């Protein structure tokens, strides 16, 4: 999971729509939820001088039907970019327009926003698609309300910790930002699409993930986040290799003899070189495969190997997830009934609220589906409906 704590100080307005903010601290984290999937969470707190808020009823008022959806965006120096929506239905205006509150539903990315004219901004969100690989280098956040944008950027001497799963920086200056544009928050090294600017540490200046800016890709960066160059660091005996993907190739650490398909995905188990293991992996574009990796190799930027019963799925451009291994053959969800490798059982489960569903090879013995159990085993004719909350994983057995 990813957790962010951000404390902001003085604010200065670059233009009517943009308000760069000074920042006291930002802390980013992610970790596993204990059920085989990596979860992400953002918690934000801003404390500082007065903030110029939208007028109630204006097009920038997040409670107004004419304002559109508010957004929270996070940018990293390694090219990461996450956008989360805060729909109009969740907003309220308080204290004659001196405070705006947002409460999101359990299935929404943004859980809570509180914005006060006295200088307070608090945000709690759940974010997807962003990893911390130890080479984040910088972090920027932008809140958009209609035509108004509030932003802060931590980088260079502000950074006090940058390691897998955690990023901490302190003392960002509002004067470091001229506006709240993507270019300012990413910190470009050149002009897209050609880029070509200078990068230290043997880095390469390449287009970012949306083709609108440029970023420095360093050979010390984790391999999974170095697309399209694929020049990143891997464990001994492995190399950073380009795999199929769109619009950029996927980058993954694999052995010198990368494929081990004798037993096929997802069982794998084919021969690899000394010190390497045959593991299931996949690409959202290029399909599934069995790859040779060292025992300590992580899933892209996630900080460690995927738990048993899951495989590393690369969604493209540095985005990784540990996903349940699908059962082989059998019926479609929820009947499932397919086969799995030795030591695994095929079980049906679904994200709460009618989300994604799986016929998953779960590591035996499989715990019963229930509150706080993190299991997916249900009686015949039922499947496990799983929800993820702040206290862990809850499941409910539901009839077909």
Fold topology:
Elements lengths: L2 E9 L6 E15 L5 E3 L1 E6 L22 E7 L4 E6 L4 E4 L4 E5 L6 E7 L3 E6 L12 E8 L2 E8 L3 E5 L2 E7 L9 H5 L17 E4 L6 E4 L20 E6 L6 E6 L20 E8 L3 E8 L15 E7 L2 E6 L19 E8 L5 E7 L18 E8 L2 E8 L1
Parallel strand pairs: 2-12, 19-21, 23-25
Antiparallel strand pairs: 1-2, 2-3, 2-14, 4-10, 5-6, 5-11, 7-8, 8-9, 9-10, 11-12, 13-14, 15-16, 17-18, 19-20, 21-22, 23-24, 25-26
Brief overview:
The chain has 400 residues and is an all-beta fold. The protein has one helix spanning 182-186, and strands at 3-11, 18-32, 38-40, 42-47, 70-76, 81-86, 91-94, 99-103, 110-116, 120-125, 138-145, 148-155, 159-163, 166-172, 204-207, 214-217, 238-243, 250-255, 276-283, 287-294, 310-316, 319-324, 344-351, 357-363, 382-389, 392-399.
* Helix-and-strand structural type: mainly beta
Total discrete domains: 3
The DSSP helix count reads 1
Mean pLDDT: 75
How widely separated are the two ends? 31 Å
Strand content: 35-45%
| Strand elements, count | 26
Task: State the share of residues found in helices, binned by percent.
Answer: under 10%
The biggest beta sheet reads: 9 strands, mixed
Unreliable stretches covering 5 or more consecutive residues: 9-15
What is the overall shape? globular
Q: H/E series, N to C?
A: EEEEEEEEEEEEEEHEEEEEEEEEEEE
Compute the gyration radius: what is it?
A: 23 Å
């Amino acid at each position: 999971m990813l957790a962010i704590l951000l404390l902001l100080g003085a604010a200065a307005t670059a233009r009517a729509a943009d308000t760069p903010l000074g920042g006291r601290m930002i802390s980013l984290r992610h970790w596993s939820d204990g059920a085989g999937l990596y979860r992400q969470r953002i918690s934000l707190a801003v404390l500082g001088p007065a903030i110029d808020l939208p007028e109630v009823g204006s097009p920038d008022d997040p409670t107004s039907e004419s304002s559109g959806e508010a957004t929270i965006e996070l940018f990293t120096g390694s090219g990461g970019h996450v956008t989360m929506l805060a729909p109009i239905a969740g907003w309220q205006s308080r204290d004659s327009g001196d405070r705006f509150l947002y409460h999101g539903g359990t299935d929404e990315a943004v859980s809570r926003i509180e914005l006060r004219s006295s200088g307070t901004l608090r945000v709690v969100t759940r974010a997807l698609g962003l990893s911390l690989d130890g080479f984040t280098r910088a972090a920027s956040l932008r809140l958009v309300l209609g035509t108004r944008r509030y932003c802060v950027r931590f980088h260079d001497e502000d950074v006090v910790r940058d390691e897998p799963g955690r990023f901490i920086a302190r003392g960002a200056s509002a004067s470091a930002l001229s506006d709240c544009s993507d270019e300012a928050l990413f910190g470009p090294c050149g002009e897209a699409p050609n880029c070509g600017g200078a990068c230290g540490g043997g880095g390469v200046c390449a287009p970012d993930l949306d083709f609108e800016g440029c970023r420095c890709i360093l050979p010390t960066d984790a391999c999974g986040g170095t697309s399209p160059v694929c020049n990143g660091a891997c464990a001994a005996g492995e190399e950073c290799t380009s795999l199929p993907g769109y619009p950029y190739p996927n980058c993954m650490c694999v052995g010198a003899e990368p494929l081990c398909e004798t037993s096929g995905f997802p069982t794998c188990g084919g021969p690899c070189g000394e010190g390497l293991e045959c593991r299931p992996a996949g690409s959202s574009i290029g399909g599934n495969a069995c790859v040779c990796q060292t025992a300590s190799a992580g899933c892209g930027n996630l900080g460690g190997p995927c738990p048993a019963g899951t495989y590393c799925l690369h969604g493209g451009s540095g985005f990784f997830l540990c996903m349940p291994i699908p059962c082989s053959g059998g019926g479609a969800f929820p009947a499932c009934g397919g086969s799995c490798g030795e030591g695994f059982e095929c079980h049906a489960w679904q994200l709460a609220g009618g989300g994604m569903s799986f016929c998953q090879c779960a590591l035996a013995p499989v715990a019963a589906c229930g509150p706080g159990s993190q299991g997916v085993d249900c009686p015949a004719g039922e499947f496990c409906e799983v929800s993820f909350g702040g206290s862990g994983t809850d499941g409910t057995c539901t009839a077909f």
